[in-house]
């Protein structure tokens, strides 16, 4: 029988993070997750994780705050045991053309996706190396690979995250720890709420499969990368985008 393992998921209250939390619970994990708000969404994730057979523990934590991230990791490990799987899914959008982009728009996006992932990786790496076991998955984006007009902050954050993924994978591989990224295309979550009909049409026109993806499909990929079935995969940025051409 597989021993219960614990997982950490940032941005686990909604969207892809929630789907990952629930999918990992189905795979036998207890799941500690964070978000900035203690809201209905966080309660719902906890309920769904429980329904999927895992213990859930939510912590209010802004991943841009290194101290708060340290406390998040410590609290979850105390409640659920040492983390084995760590998924960085927290992310925000502040799309603007460069000429109109305020420094705070840049900082919010880079701070969440890139600094946030750094804060989490740094907080968990020593433990994973000491235990010589563990898997990190960073939720990146196709925008980090192709770029996109009006998203220089997001492209920089996700491109940086891809670099972090490849470098850290090399650093920790000798210790039996794997690091990968998933790079989704357009996924139906709250993140796309601000898209106009025109922008949706334009996006759909670039996707070979002609539709947006689901958070559950991304969670399947994350669960595969976390699983022992992926035990020889590290340092990869795996696109899941319905055949997008940006
Ligand atoms: P959602 O907006 O649905 O969910 C974002 C989650 O992150 C929420 O739980 C939110 O909770 C949390 N969050 C945001 N900022 C922080 C923060 N500073 N600290 C802690 N938690 C935070 O987004 P998605 O699920 O769509 O996105 C998840 C990841 O997937 C992101 O990294 C995104 O860039 C990436 N992605 C999404 C795509 C899409 O089309 N949806 C495509 C490609 C990549 P709260 O607001 O309470 O903090």
Automatic annotation (TrEMBL):
Chaperone listed as a keyword: no
A GO molecular-function annotation: oxidoreductase activity
One Pfam family cited in the UniProt record for this chain: adh_short_C2
Record domain Ketoreductase: where: 5-185
SUPFAM superfamilies according to UniProt: NAD(P)-binding Rossmann-fold domains (SSF51735)
InterPro entries for the chain: KR_dom, NAD(P)-bd_dom_sf, Sc_DH/Rdtase_CS, SDR, SDR_fam
Domain of life: Bacteria
The keyword Oxidoreductase is assigned to this record: yes
Keyword line: Oxidoreductase
GO biological process: monocarboxylic acid metabolic process
Similarity comment: family membership: Belongs to the short-chain dehydrogenases/reductases (SDR) family.
NCBIfam families in alphabetical order: PRK12826.1-2 (NF009466)
Protein name: SDR family NAD(P)-dependent oxidoreductase
Species the sequence originates in: Streptomyces reniochalinae
């Amino acid at each position: 029988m597989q021993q219960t393992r614990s997982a950490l998921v940032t941005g686990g209250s909604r969207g892809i993070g929630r789907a990952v939390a629930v999918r990992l619970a189905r795979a036998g994990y207890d799941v500690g997750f964070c978000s900035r708000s203690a809201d209905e969404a966080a309660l719902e994730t906890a309920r769904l994780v429980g329904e999927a057979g895992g213990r859930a523990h939510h912590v209010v934590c802004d991943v841009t705050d290194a101290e708060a991230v340290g406390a998040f990791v410590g609290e979850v490990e105390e409640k659920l045991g040492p983390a084995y799987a760590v998924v960085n899914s927290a992310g925000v959008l502040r799309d603007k053309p460069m000429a109109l982009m305020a420094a705070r728009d840049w900082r919010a996006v880079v701070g969440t996706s890139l600094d946030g992932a750094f804060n989490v990786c740094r907080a968990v790496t020593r433990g994973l190396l000491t235990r010589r076991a563990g898997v990190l998955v960073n939720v990146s984006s196709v925008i980090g690979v192709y770029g996109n007009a009006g998203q220089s902050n997001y492209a920089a954050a996700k491109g940086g995250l891809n670099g972090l993924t490849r470098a850290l994978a090399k650093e920790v591989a000798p210790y039996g720890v794997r690091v990968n990224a998933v790079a989704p295309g357009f996924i139906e979550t709250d993140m796309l709420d601000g898209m106009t009909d025109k922008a949706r049409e334009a996006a759909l026109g670039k996707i070979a499969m002609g539709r947006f993806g689901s958070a559950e499909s991304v969670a399947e990929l994350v669960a595969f990368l976390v699983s022992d079935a992926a035990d020889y995969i590290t340092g990869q940025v795996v696109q899941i985008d319905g055949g997008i051409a940006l």
